[in-house]
Amino acid sequence: MITYEDFNIFDDPTLEGRLAKIRTQLDPKFERMGTQMIANFEADATQKFYLHIAKHLRRHKNPPPDTWFAIGEGARGYKMLPHFEVGLWPDQLFIWFALLAEVPERQQYGAKLRQLAAESTLWAMSDLVIAKDHTQPKALSLTPANFEQVVRRFETTKKGEFMIGRLIPKTAVIFTDEQAQQQLLTRTMTDLFTIYQKISSNPA
């Protein structure tokens, strides 16, 4: 379970110190969470999924501002494919279905996103939020106008990205209640897996 104390790793201003805390304190939790999520996915689908825990190998000076794990169908990587990301910023937990800037065939994925927007399934998930940049801890409310804005940017901008999911502030009670946290994670991943199945099939 993610706790309030896990957010304290970001109080360490040094690269070595923060990475050490991430590796010893958070990564084992990410391993357990990701493995369980994959088991849940594979129980309901024919695809095989792989867990990728952020290693921050390219950081040589500044400590990472966030940390995460990703789940996708790529054994060697996830950024070029639709995938899920779960992780921490200093002030919040994020849970995303993501299409990052590295994803090819943007127009085809954009068409699938618009098909999704035409269905009532998406708008029934009104407490989800969307975002256009995974490097920023910011999100927009899920409205037709915001959805179209983020999809259009994803299709037409080199750095355009599309994420949909939930952001949970570190002050939320779920960080002291394991059962409530598990219920929220399960509900969120169920919602996002529904979206994943509609978007991740071979682009039209």
Automatic annotation (TrEMBL):
It comes from the Bacteria. SUPFAM superfamilies: YktB/PF0168-like (SSF142913). It holds the Pfam family DUF1054. Belongs to the UPF0637 family. This is UPF0637 protein ACFQ5M_03225. It comes from Agrilactobacillus yilanensis.
